[in-house]
Amino acid sequence: MLSVNNLVTSYGLIKALKGVSLEAKKGAVTCILGPNGAGKTTLMFTLAGILAPDTGTVSLLDQNLMGLGAPKILRKGLALVPENRLVFADLTVSENLLAGAFSQSRAMSAQVSDDIDKMYDRFPILKARHDQPAGNLSGGEQQMLALARALMSRPSILLMDEPSVGLSPLIVDEIFAIVKQLNDDGMSILLVEQNATKALQVADYFYLLDQGKVTFSGTPDQLKDDDIIKRAYLGGG
Amino acid sequence: MDMLQTSIDGLMMGSTYALLGLSFALVFGVMRRINLAFGACLLFGASLAIYLEPILGWGVWGLFLVTIVGAALASSYVERLCFAPHGKRQGDVTAMVASFAVWMQLDEISSQLLPQRTHAFQGIEVPNFWWGELFVRGDQLLHFAIALVSILLLYLLLYKTRFGLLVRATADSSETAHLLGAPVPWLGFTIFLVAGILGGLAAFMILSADGYVTPLFGLWSTFKGLVAMIIGGVGSLVGAVLGGLILGLVETHAGAALGAEFRDMVTFGMVFLVLIIRPGGLMGVKIYRTDNLAQERV
């Protein structure tokens, strides 16, 4: 579905991605593991069109995404839930959701309010807090809002950049349950995580990114059998 | 009765300050752009109006129109030249320094357009009247009404339309708004244009109430606009309106009680107090908060 080929992105002279290739299959949860500084967020930002790659190709459902800006990529069906959530703190919860539909044309406004109702059904806490500024929500609630906001653009694939970061274990469980639920409902997801134990519960396929390169790819079972990864990411020997 | 009369005068003057403060708040508070040239844009509009008046021969309506259009054009020019090319990555300081240069440029052009330094500035003629024992200046009552309607329209634009949502989301975090598909560069331009129109309107009303314009008006309007915004609280539009009204009331009362020479002293004393007691302003909101994380990454 989403296929990335030999992607190179640099900040000035420093190459953050040194030729990354990967594939995210339709209806699957694909997970990218990697330590800090591996280039995970750079990869997400490049796929979402915030950063421009030097070389490589990206295509989604056989549409080329290379060279397009963030708004166009979103319209082609790729939505990113950024790390640290980045909700609009001064806007209310319902305004944040409306903002998620920026990419939709004005004519669809009836559809947009239908979509908001669907989000409220999926995330009842957002309905209860719909007229509060998003800055007043807890971290877990903000993560749900960021997720719901991304879904408002009706994406065909959802990118999530470290949804567990800065959240308590109980809330992390809740977030991953939602990811699982979304995937069961048919959403394709590309997930970036450092929490490999959690990711193993939901992901169908893994890539390991280290210093801008893919150093491993395989199924959860292959991942669990790899000694080095086991030591570095799953704890214990 | 004198107190009441002074309060009415102050409120009328304050309403034009409120509009001026609002135009500053759009640029400084909503778009978070340190645009040093904004007052100079208003001066440019007024100077162009004076310069073109004998050529066009449209009288006071020509002054009205050209002041607003001139200020709006200058404001968009500053956005294109200073702020559009310097995004967050180059840093806000580069854009601010660029706007300082354009301030000098616009000031110089305005001085050339106003060779006599002090020029009469005509106002819209409205008969004055007595309301009981209270004297009401007709033109100021008209200004009050215009300011009120403009403030209401701006509120509806920002809080009741999709465009307003785009603007507020962009002001909150331009990176995230861009990620969600908002046309960020185009929005910045539009807000500078709207701020120029509102500022030009305020400039026309203030100048025609005073009856003259000098090349110092740019600096003067920067002071008044910033003071209204600081008293109200940077980032709050309601605060800017409130700050403008308070500024008008305090100035008029200080002028009536202590004499005109103490007016500015009292005003700046008040700013001093506000900054000590409530540094965020009366309706102070926290700003420069949410986008830091995004900025580190992008």
Summarize the entry for a quick read.
Chain A has 237 residues and is an alpha/beta fold.
Q: In words, what does this structure look like?
A:
Chain A is an alpha/beta fold. Chain A is 39% helix and 26% strand. Chain A has helices at 40-48, 70-75, 93-100, 109-122, 124-128, 139-151, 169-184, 196-202, 220-225, 227-234; strands at 2-11, 14-24, 29-33, 55-60, 63-64, 78-81, 157-161, 188-193, 205-210, 213-218. In chain A, the strands form 2 sheets. A 6-stranded mixed sheet of chain A has the order 6-7-8-3-9-10, sandwiched between helices. In chain A, strand 7 (157-161), helix 7 (169-184) and strand 8 (188-193) form a beta-alpha-beta unit. In chain A, helix 3 (93-100) runs parallel beside helix 6 and helix 7 packs parallel to helix 8 (196-202). Chain A is globular and about 50 Å long. Chain B has 298 residues and is mostly helical. Chain B has helices spanning 2-30, 38-56, 59-83, 92-113, 138-160, 162-172, 174-179, 184-210, 217-232, 237-258, 263-277, 291-297; strands at 119-120, 129-131, 134-136, 212-213. In chain B, strand 2 (129-131) and strand 3 (134-136) form a beta hairpin. Chain B is globular, with a radius of gyration of 19 Å. Chain B starts with a helix and ends with a helix. The interface between A and B is medium-sized, with 29 and 24 residues.
Provide key terms for this protein.
heterodimer; A: four-stranded antiparallel sheet; 10 strands; 26% strand; B: 298 residues; mainly alpha; two-stranded antiparallel ribbon; two-stranded antiparallel sheet; 74% helix; 3% strand; disordered C terminus
Oligomer: heterodimer
Supply the helix-strand structural class of chain B: mainly alpha
Mean pLDDT of chain A: 85
Sum up the overall morphology of chain A in one term: globular
Largest sheet of chain B, in brief, is: 2 strands, antiparallel
- Count of discrete alpha- or pi-helical segments spanning 4 or more residues of chain B: 12
* Main β-sheet description of chain A: 6 strands, mixed
